[in-house]
Design brief:
By secondary structure, the protein is of the alpha+beta class. Helices cover 32% and strands 28% of the residues.
Length: 108
């Protein structure tokens, strides 16, 4: 899958993600990255990815975050208070392309 951010459409390579943990207050602007990330997971994500979501109360001051685990054991914790969705997609795709290359080398 090719990554692009054209016209608000965001696609990312998700086949190597094994777990997503996120915490956010849906009533705050900084939570947008978490909400959009979850919305752009594939429809079958719950069957292939363990998804843990904590929705904070409206008056919560806890920061939003997104933590990802990949098939190779790498964990990535992303500060969604500072990163926009395109930055998160770029980080995910960068590591996923490395895993794609490794899989291609093993199968060759």
């Amino acid at each position: 899958m090719h990554s692009s951010a054209l016209g608000g459409l965001v696609t990312m390579i998700t086949k190597h993600i094994t777990e997503v943990t996120t915490r956010f207050n849906p009533f705050t602007k900084p939570s947008k990255t978490c909400r959009v990330f979850l919305a752009h997971l594939p429809a079958n994500a719950r069957t292939t990815i363990k998804i843990n979501t904590t929705v904070l109360k409206r008056d919560s001051q806890e920061p939003s975050f997104l933590k990802l685990k990949f098939r190779d054991g790498k964990e990535m914790q992303l500060d969604t208070e500072k990163l926009k969705i395109n930055d998160v997609v770029e980080e995910v795709d960068r590591h996923s392309r490395i895993l794609n290359r490794q899989a291609d080398l093993v199968s060759s």
